[in-house]
Every structure is written in C-alpha cells, then in structure tokens.
Design brief:
9 strands; single chain; alpha+beta; elongated; 316 residues; Cytidine Deaminase, domain 2; 5-stranded mixed beta sheet
C-alpha cells in the first residue's frame, strides 16, 4: 500500500511539473472527459501542437486532443525545442535574433513617433500587445501581403484571419482599433460646419466605409448652419447593390429636422465611379426632398483609393 501511495504521489508530481511547463510556455490546458483543449499563446507552438496530434478548433480558437492525456508528451516536446523550452543540464542556446527587439521598437516610437513606420512595422508593434514571446514581424508582413492595408486587415472577416491562427484576443484588438479610428474621425466633423471642413468629412467617410465588403448607404444630416447633427447607415446591401427608398430618406430627414443632406455610399469593388443606378437613385431622392425644403448638398461614392462627388461631376 505504501509503494502504491508513493507511486501515485510521484505520478502527481510529474503531472504537476508537466502542467507547469505548459504554463511557462503560455499554454493553458482544460480537460473534459476524453477531450483536452490547449489555448493561450498557441501561435509559436502550432507546429509542435499539430505534430503531437492536435486539431485546430477555429470556432473556439484552441487546439483539441482526444484519447490519452497529452500533457506529458506536450511538456516533453516543449523541453526538446531549444527556442521554446530549456533543459538546465544542457548548454545555453544562443538568444534568438529578435531578443530585445520589442523594447527597441517601443523606444523608437517613444522617441520619434510612429509616423515613419511602414504598415507592417506598425502592425508588428500592435501585435506585441496580443501575442507574447515571439517575433511578430513575419506574421505582420504576411497579413499586409494578404490583405493589402491596415484598414482592410482590421475589417477582414474573422474566418479569413483565422487562416493565420489569429486568436480571439487579436481579433478583439483589430475590432477595437477599427472602431477607435472611426470615432476619432467622427469627432473631427461632429457639430461643425461640414462644407468648411470638407477634407475632414472625406476622411471620415473613407474611414467609415472604404473597407466594407458590402455596399452601405449612409446619410449625413445637416442643420441650417450645415453642421452635422446625425449620421446613419440607411441600408446595407450586397457586394454591388444597395436598395434605397427615397421615402425613407425623407422620413429620416424630417425626424432629425435636417435642412440638408449629404448622401454617401461605398463601392466594395474599389472603383468610386457612379453607376447609372446611383445617378437615377440620387435624382429620385432629390425630387422627393427639395419640395420639403431639404437640400441635397452632394452624393459621395467612396472607394478604397478615392472618391467621386456628384457635385464636382455636375450630377447635382
């Protein structure tokens, strides 16, 4: 009986050591009957987890193992990888090339600002705060290469981002950054004479709509001083069409007691050239609004790399 107790204690101690090894690597293990889930900082260990028999669960953002408890073999695999684990009996391995890199990047930004950073460098810096203990530059470069711009990346479908093993914490970071950009742009135009701050208005519209994957039709409601008093997305459509009803546009204008409107919609294709349907729809809204004393100042079509103004094109 004494030997059995000793053996059980030794097994428990070994299991505890294995769990501590996983925690030291930033991995968390949860057990449920015959299913084990590994979450946390899995990105730098994805090859190891895959080779150990794990399957990536895109929905729950974790690696799953079935059958025997994988704790011991995962700990052994971590110990066998010099860059991720270290055996105190083995000679010290040289530090990775990115050792201290995060501190140098932060110091550079604090000293000189972030204006001089390339998109991938800025993204690399942002990833510092959601991904621990790895070189984030290669991932940042792959993401920019795949999505093109930071705006397109932050607006990307989560399913596409998970192809890069992006975890939930990073997804939340991207959404927060996108909404922060929208709010900052909105503050520059809110309750100000829009016609005298036209470039800021364009920047706001671009920030809000340029990277959407489907068409959205928005209305900017202005008072008699041409100050922005409300901003609403009226309709959401498909990749190339948004149904717009002039009666609903006028109804919302009367609700806000608006004296003028600026119509805005995006072209997910990237080309801001107005379509024939865009032109006809604008004429219908103008015909419904002007008898009620509501002026249509402009209709802006927003693309990824530019915009079109109905007023500038002579269409209003």
């Amino acid at each position: 009986m004494g030997r059995a107790k000793t053996k059980a204690a030794e097994d428990n101690a070994t299991q505890d050591e294995a769990l501590l090894s996983l925690l030291a690597a930033g991995l968390r293990l949860q057990a449920n009957d015959t299913l084990w889930r590994v979450s946390g900082n899995t990105l730098p260990h994805r090859s190891l987890l895959r080779d150990a028999g794990g399957t990536w669960n895109r929905l729950d953002m974790c690696w799953e193992f079935t059958g025997e408890d994988p704790t011991a073999r995962l700990a052994a695999a971590l110990e066998a990888v010099p860059a991720l684990g270290h055996n105190s009996a083995a000679p010290l391995e040289p530090k990775p090339h990115y050792h201290g890199h995060r501190g140098r990047v932060r110091e550079r930004v604090l000293k000189s600002g972030a204006e001089g950073l390339e998109d991938y460098e800025l993204l690399e810096l942002l990833l510092f705060y959601s991904i621990e203990r790895i070189d984030t530059k290669p991932l940042a470069k792959r993401l920019i290469e795949r999505f093109g711009t930071l705006g397109d990346l932050f607006a990307a479908d989560p399913a596409h981002l998970r192809e890069f093993d992006i975890d939930q914490r990073t997804l939340v970071l991207f959404r927060a950054l996108r909404d922060s950009g929208r709010r900052l742009a909105q503050q520059k135009v809110a309750k100000k004479p829009v016609l005298g701050n036209w470039q800021q208005l364009l920047d706001y519209c671009h920030t809000t709509l340029a990277h959407e994957k489907t068409e959205r039709f928005a209305i900017l409601f202005l008072n008699r001083k041409n100050e922005l008093i409300a901003d609403e997305v009226q309709q959401r459509g498909t990749v190339d069409h948004t149904p717009v009803y002039p009666r609903e546009v006028v109804k919302r204008a009367l609700h806000h007691e608006a004296s003028a409107l600026i119509l805005v919609h995006n072209h997910p294709s990237g080309d801001p050239k107005p379509s024939r349907d865009d032109i006809e729809m604008t004429k219908e809204i103008r015909a419904a609004a002007e008898p009620l004393g509501i002026t249509i100042h402009d209709h802006l079509v927003i693309g990824r790399k530019g915009h079109s103004s109905f007023r500038s094109l002579g269409l209003l």
